[in-house]
Design brief:
Elements: E1 22-23, E2 30-32, H1 37-40, E3 47-48, E4 52-56, H2 63-77, E5 81-86, E6 97-100, H3 103-113, H4 129-133, E7 136-139, H5 148-151, E8 156-158, H6 170-185, E9 196-201, H7 215-231, E10 235-241, H8 246-251, E11 254-260, E12 270-276, E13 292-297, H9 298-301, E14 303-308
Parallel strand pairs: 4-10, 4-11, 5-8, 5-9, 9-10
Antiparallel strand pairs: 1-2, 2-3, 6-7, 11-12, 12-13, 13-14
Main location: cytoplasm
Keywords: Cytoplasm, Nucleus, tRNA processing
Pathway: tRNA modification; 5-methoxycarbonylmethyl-2-thiouridine-tRNA biosynthesis
């Protein structure tokens, strides 16, 4: 006899959720989208409020910048405030606009109705949970700016290196600015529930300490204190890094690595390897079908789509291509069936 417990969540909660957020299927987490719906499907539906996401950059591509830009654009369209600390070009200057692809649903229906005859193991595989949600996407090459009436409804905070005084390091200035912002305006105890999206682009180790021996210690301390601030705030944070360390992954809630595709005959421009998934407010963490994801730039390199490109091997005892191949006999046959 097995006993299972399931938490019942009211369909009409008494508490009004902040703009641009929703509860997960169990009703235990408040989620907001990353701005890329196909990526949300791999991380449990979106970013949990109060979580820290680390993206390991690929030196040969700028996909991490595109992900951050979609993340910030999603905040503007959902009336969520932004905080940006960028070391390269300002991502606020050319944010992608939201577009809707209507014709993709008709083409996808025709493809799903067509039965695959050769790749028999792929027949029952859902092709893109991501593609079902990619009818609405952000156009990375759009020349149209985001409407000013949308930008005027949100607050955009910028933390630049030029504002840092010589008496303190950049780490101290950045952490002090975020502490003041999160505790005063975006605390979970505030009456007005507004979400803040923090985007820190290319957080270089060289900006934290002149002594190379203390680089990782300085950055680890920064990430550790930032996570404490996020836990008591209505905010999410996305940080891109050009260095990898197991120490950083212990303080982050979600980590994935970008790798440029060096395959010639492939539709994928890069690959995304999931390193760590959120484990907030749950005993059993999310277990995806695969930890390896392919990234496509479709529709003339306008929007990003995340897909699973590897399939686990079928190790079941009755795995077979055809019912006829299950029994092997030595009796000769006039007809050869392959």
């Amino acid at each position: 006899m097995s006993i299972t417990f399931k938490k019942k969540v009211s369909s009409t909660p008494n508490v009004r959720l902040p703009l641009g957020t929703r509860l997960n299927s169990n009703g235990t987490l408040l989620l907001t989208s990353t701005g890329i719906s196909s990526l949300d499907t791999f991380i449990g539906g979106g970013l949990p409020i109060g979580s820290l996401l680390l993206i390991y950059e690929d030196q040969n591509c700028n996909l991490s910048d595109s992900i951050v830009r979609c993340y910030l654009s999603e905040g503007i369209y959902n009336k969520q405030d932004l905080c940006v600390a960028a070391l390269r070009t300002d991502p606020i200057e050319n944010l992608p606009t939201k577009e809707e692809n209507i014709s993709s649903s008709d083409n996808r229906t025709d493809e799903e109705n067509e039965k695959m005859k050769i790749a028999w193991r792929y027949e029952n595989l859902s092709t893109i949970d991501s593609a079902a949600a990619s009818t609405i996407h952000y156009d990375l090459q759009s020349s149209k700016p985001i409407p000013n009436e949308l930008k005027e409804q949100v607050k955009i905070h910028k933390i630049t290196w030029n504002d840092c005084t010589s008496s303190q390091s950049y780490r101290q200035y950045l952490l002090k600015s975020l502490h003041k912002l999160l505790t005063n305006d975006y605390s979970s105890q505030q009456a007005e529930k507004r979400i803040l999206r923090i985007g820190i682009q290319s957080l270089s180790l060289s900006l934290f300490d002149g002594n190379s021996a203390n680089h990782f210690d300085e950055l680890f301390a920064f990430l550790y204190h930032l996570r404490i601030l996020l836990r008591t705030s209505l905010a999410t944070c996305v940080i891109t890094l050009n260095e990898k360390s197991k120490l950083f992954e212990t303080v982050a809630d979600l980590v994935f690595e970008l790798k440029l595709s060096n395959l010639i005959h492939t539709d994928y421009v890069a690959f995304c390897q999931l390193v760590k998934l959120p484990k907030l407010n749950t005993i059993q963490p999310i277990i995806p079908d695969t930890w390896d994801i392919g990234i496509k730039l479709i529709k003339h390199r306008k929007n990003l789509v995340f897909e699973k490109y590897s399939i686990p091997p079928d190790l079941s005892a009755d795995a077979s291509r055809d019912e006829k191949t299950k029994s092997l006999t030595c009796t000769p046959s006039k007809e050869f069936d392959f």
